[in-house]
Amino acid sequence: MDGIERIKVLASEIIDEDLKKITDYLITREDMNDKYLNEEKSIKQMVEFINDTAYKELSKKKQSNFKGYCVQDETVYGWAIHYWDESNKDLGLVEEVKEEPKEESSKDLEEATEETVKEIEVIPQKADKPKWVAEGQLSLFDVY
Predict the structure, then answer these.
(1) pLDDT in the model for residue 59
(2) How far is CA 21 from CA 45, 83, 115, in A?
(3) Three-class SS of residue 33?
(4) Number of H helices, E strands in the chain
(5) What is the spatial distance between Cα 47 and Cα 44, in angstroms, rounded to a whole number?
(6) How far apart are CA 14 and CA 35, in angstroms?
(7) Does the structure show a pLDDT above 80 at 8?
(8) Closest CA to 27 of 74, 75, 73, 77
(9) Measured distance between the N- and C-terminal CA atoms of the chain, rounded to whole angstroms
(10) What are the pLDDT digits (tens) for 48-100?
(11) 113 phi, psi to nearest 5 deg
(12) How many CA atoms lie within 13 A of 61 on its CB side?
């Protein structure tokens, strides 16, 4: 499968029209064919990269009293190309670590239970304090 086909497959289930425009643009960029084959890249992560970049850019403009909060399509397309063109490490993106759940054997569970029982401390119960009631003084609780 070439890179353009990979983008088509990744974008096949996209419903969002704006995201569809971005992936349609990516498909037209035949010069990026090899970049699209990078397995560490995904549409979901591309969207997160674009959102983060847009937030940073708009935050800069907001500080300079910029009132309009929109980004041109060409700018967003450029960010998308930049995402696919650079490695995740160069972009400062953290790879998602997928850990498969480890099956625990009954022996592991027994050992864990024994260790847990050993770690439990017995907390002494507080002794009830004797009630002190002044002679001749009624408590509100005694009335009812």
Answers:
(1) 77
(2) 17, 16, 57
(3) coil
(4) 7, 0
(5) 5
(6) 21
(7) yes
(8) 77
(9) 84
(10) 999 999 888 877 766 655 555 678 899 999 999 999 999 888 888 876 545 55
(11) -65, -40
(12) 12
Which H or E run includes 113? helix 106-119
Angle at 96 between CA 21 and CA 55, to 5 degrees: 50
Class of residue 27 by CB neighbours under 10 A (exposed 0-12, middle 13-18, buried 19+): middle
Give the residue carrying structure tokens 């304090």: 129
d(C-alpha 89, C-alpha 53), whole Å: 16
Answer for the pair 46, 84: CB distance below 8 angstroms, yes or no: yes
CA angle 50, 20, 13 (to 5 degrees): 110
Could you tell me the pTM of the whole model? 0.60
Question: Angle formed by the axes of helices 43-63 and 73-85, to 10°?
Answer: 130
Query: What token pair was written down for 103?
Result: 């099956």
Radius of gyration of the chain (CA): 31
